[in-house]
Amino acid sequence: MNRCSLPYANWKWPEFKAALGAFATGRVGVGPDIDELENQIGQLLGEPNIFAVNSGRTALRIGLEGLAKLRPERREVIIPAYICPAVVNTIKSAGLCPVPSEVGPDLNLHPESAHRLIHKDTLAILVAHMYGCPADIVAIEGLAKKNGIYLIDDAAQVVGESINGRQLGTFGDFGLISFAQSKCLIAGESGAGGILICQNPELTPIAHTHVESLGPARSRGRAFLTFVWSYLLSGYTNKVTYYWRRVVPSSPKGISPARIANLDARIALCQLKSLARRRLERISVLDKYVQQLSTLGLRLPQYTSGKYLARAMTLLPAGSNVESCREQLRSHAIETRRGYPVFLTDDHSSPYAREMTDRLIELPLAPGMSDTNVKRICEHLGETLKKQEHCPSNQSIT
Ligand SMILES: *Cc1c(COP(=O)(O)O)cnc(C)c1O
Q1: pLDDT tens digit string along 54-65?
Q2: Ligand 1 center to 187 CA (angstroms)
Q3: CA-255 nearest atom, ligand 1
């Protein structure tokens, strides 16, 4: 059976060659590729103050701690209610309080909802461009300026897209990028790298001192091998990994802040080279999906013709049993994933974000995926949904 996996990383020979080079020359932890990566990302974004660290979380933490130093009397950070849990946890671990705001149909922060949450304790608004879809950050930038609060441009999921000629990640007081699995530039599993982009001239020296104090990344050679084994070869290694984990459970250690490893910087540089090609290939697969899905009456709520998206997040009909649908697709060797859990303080604050979480599934979207595969996935999805229609006892109660 033709397996359709979710795209964890689109590595080709250059990435493996770069890694072998790092191993052969003993430049795994430190080396010259870190400066080179900072230079190239700086050029792409048109920004001088670029710091390469070991994760998006590290970048976010350093930025947040800097802002909190500048305005210690303020503790709240407004975030979209639909967001990766890493963001929520990082804000909390910086001693700050995340405040969820409703999102719009693009799954991004809704400017008016955010506006209503601003008050005297608000330190910053964090805007993320969910699955590569640009948020209305221009409107939110205006909002932040008018109210005298900081703006964070979380471009963890997107690199190289712009609004009005300004690159995402470069709005606001600071921005960030991540090199973790399923992002835009992938150097490995979470902990493989991230970028802090500083705009605020008061923040830059604080961030600079903080980054200088970080130690080099450790055990990255081993992390590389684990990533190749459990993500890139998962089709072959799943079973072995399963039994291995039963014998040797993985330690649930968090990522401690560090500089980026030279090995990961080298791989990120290769990914940067192929970014433009992979972007166009993804757009073409998205177009195929939208065509096929429309025949089923389904859509990708974030899609605009010709625009990039990192993932094919598909909205299932209201009342669908999402888990049974995923199970059916899995039986045809089609891997799927659900959306993020919604971060809410009470049940009624973000009904739209909650509904999206209940009804979204991610379909495989690899650059260069064939028409046949897209068609096959959509056909199986259609069959599954039809079965549910005819068997209402199967449906979840929402
Ligand atoms: C993944 C992600 C992060 C964190 O990046 P890591 O490199 O995994 O720490 C932050 N923000 C968003 C929106 C993300 O998707």
Answers
A1: 999 999 999 999
A2: 13
A3: 9
